[in-house]
Fold this protein.
Amino acid sequence: MIIDLKVPSPGESINEVEIANWLKQEGDYVEKDEELCEIDSDKATLTINAEASGKLSIKVTAGTTVSVGDVIATIDTSAEGAPKVAKAKTESAPAPAAKLEEKPAAAPASASYATGTPSPSAAKIMTENNIKSNDVKGSGPAGRITKGDVTALLASGFGGKTAEGNRSLKREKMTTLRKKISQRLVSVKNETAMLTTFNEVDMSPIMELRKQYKDKFKEVHGVGIGFMSFFTKAVTIALESFPAVNAMIDGEEIVYHNYCDVGIAVSTPKGLMVPVIRNAETQSLADIERNIGAMAVKARDGKITVDDMTGGTFTITNGGVFGSMLSTPIINPPQSAILGMHNIVERPMAVNGQVVIRPIMYVALSYDHRIIDGRESVGFLVKVKELLENPKRMLFNGKKGEEVLLGL
């Protein structure tokens, strides 16, 4: 029996996808639910699995753009059995001898087949640059070598030919996701009245709080406490005071949200992803840390879905993890504002007439001036600064303890 393998719909309004790469080859015997290929849409990268066991026949090559519902391969279920046995003999028999020659007793019995194995895109770059598997350490699932691992190795100077004046060129087709990102970024610059306001935050109160409670926090909640949860909590409180920053334009109307769905920008080998933390205003610091960690892992492993990245009302991006001192982040449409975090550097400050050294972070708020006025943008950022520099006020939703006591 021949089963057609059709392109599924990655999400609403998506009609075309690109075959990123095939994880199996023409004529391979595949098992049911085994991953066969990766497809790129303008939202994310997804995998297509085998609907049944059998012999694979590929109809569309990698790099081709196809429509949702198109047949890209077939599976011959009548081929079940014999190819599987033959494949097992050719693959499993030489493996013990090869391992014994290289590292007698080094490879654990539970080692995954993916350990040290490059993905198809990584393998292509490795072949072009004469890179061997033992030259690069895989960071993907079960130790698989990803494209990002190889590009990072090349960026570090591996195999460079500076002394010989290497002037070679390399052309690579843009992925569907990268093309969509580029289109969105250009449209934001052209279609919004984007401005950026800046401020600085003394991070010593939060750093002292983390130092004092980090061990107990992890013991109680089972998750570490980072800066992102404090920033997310401060943002949700500030958004209540400045609702226009949490709004968006829809035609000739302004849509205000009475909830805070905060997007957290995550850099992945496939490009920038922005998973959304739903109703962040109702979550504790531990809940926020837990959800951010889970979403980041899904994004970096390529398992994030369109729904995970849809519907945010505000975005936070942290360029500080890459060493950025200051930047003007670009709004994530259709949202109206984005907060940029940066690296923490010890700087001299005037405190009570004395010059002291404090860990300072510059923060930036890019906003759409069509909907957010200067008073609101500056006020929002000052509110975030005040909450971060006095994190105990987050317990009282941005108010001082005596104000809560007095019902003010």
Observations:
- The first strand starts at residue 2 and ends at 6.
- The CA atoms of residues 59 and 73 lie 5 Å apart.
- Residues 82-110 have pLDDT under 50 and may be disordered.
- The radius of gyration is 26 Å.
